[in-house]
């Protein structure tokens, strides 16, 4: 910033120049406060966390300089708007987090400047606050508009995907009315039941994810069972349904979990691996108990998850660019549901993906989930 043309032409005021000199100290203080006070910011990589703030800061410096033709920092640019959209697309932020990080920027700037004996004039202080307030408004609005767009896409995808099993049910029912063949009736009735169960699973996933996104833990029906046997059951059924090669290995792992929820989570991960994996490579499922925990890993070869997408694939309404641009159907609820199941059991889910290793999703659970039913979920911490 020190070599910009603006500085060469001497347009920056003395206060603005001191802001530039203290820029790194300001951002260091801001990052410390944001990571300490905004839950979803704590584990964000620095480049993703800092986002458009350096560009915004440069405009803020210009705005407080009387000789520079900029009324406030957001004047004649879309930096704050882009920031809000990126927070919606790439993070787990909610609107309050978007607002809070600008509030932390306000106080980080004021505190660092005061510490170094720098004080705004009345006019500078007015412009400074007007700039921060405008950025808050524009970023929060952009965030909510982006979220609204995600929801519209979600509803459109949901409507499309629900129509397929509904159409199958209606077609089978109409054919039943036209035949007296018992075998044909039995076959068609099976299709009605199969597609009815499919709609029921989709609806359950959607309702559970909506509950989890509101900060509420899933209601679990805990029982003691062997998760390896459950995984074997899911793998066998998935191999039949998808006509894919699915390999299961690992050790027996008996513990206390919700059988139906874990089953649906494994089904989602295998379905995801079949959908996005290389068709000539097997999907590999592995069960590993250790240190009073158990991991369920599902691995596939094929195109890796884009690193920029890893922050958002566990969020409701999100689908990766590969899913949007390809012919694969889906409505962005499977992986968020997996996360809700894992965290409601006191565990977690992670993804490891690159060209060389392929893609692996790992559910990590305590062997006994009973003691963790009162602990908060990640989403509840920000409510």
UniProtKB/TrEMBL annotation:
<feature type="domain" description="Histidine kinase">
    <location>
        <begin position="157"/>
        <end position="369"/>
    </location>
</feature>
<dbReference type="Pfam" id="PF02518">
    <property type="entry name" value="HATPase_c"/>
</dbReference>
<keyword id="KW-0902">Two-component regulatory system</keyword>
<keyword id="KW-0808">Transferase</keyword>
<dbReference type="InterPro" id="IPR004358">
    <property type="entry name" value="Sig_transdc_His_kin-like_C"/>
</dbReference>
<dbReference type="Pfam" id="PF00512">
    <property type="entry name" value="HisKA"/>
</dbReference>
<protein>
    <recommendedName>
        <fullName>histidine kinase</fullName>
        <ecNumber>2.7.13.3</ecNumber>
    </recommendedName>
</protein>
<dbReference type="InterPro" id="IPR036890">
    <property type="entry name" value="HATPase_C_sf"/>
</dbReference>
<dbReference type="InterPro" id="IPR003594">
    <property type="entry name" value="HATPase_dom"/>
</dbReference>
<dbReference type="InterPro" id="IPR003661">
    <property type="entry name" value="HisK_dim/P_dom"/>
</dbReference>
<dbReference type="InterPro" id="IPR005467">
    <property type="entry name" value="His_kinase_dom"/>
</dbReference>
<dbReference type="InterPro" id="IPR050736">
    <property type="entry name" value="Sensor_HK_Regulatory"/>
</dbReference>
<dbReference type="InterPro" id="IPR036097">
    <property type="entry name" value="HisK_dim/P_sf"/>
</dbReference>
<keyword id="KW-0418">Kinase</keyword>
<dbReference type="GO" id="GO:0016301">
    <property type="term" value="F:kinase activity"/>
</dbReference>
<keyword id="KW-0597">Phosphoprotein</keyword>
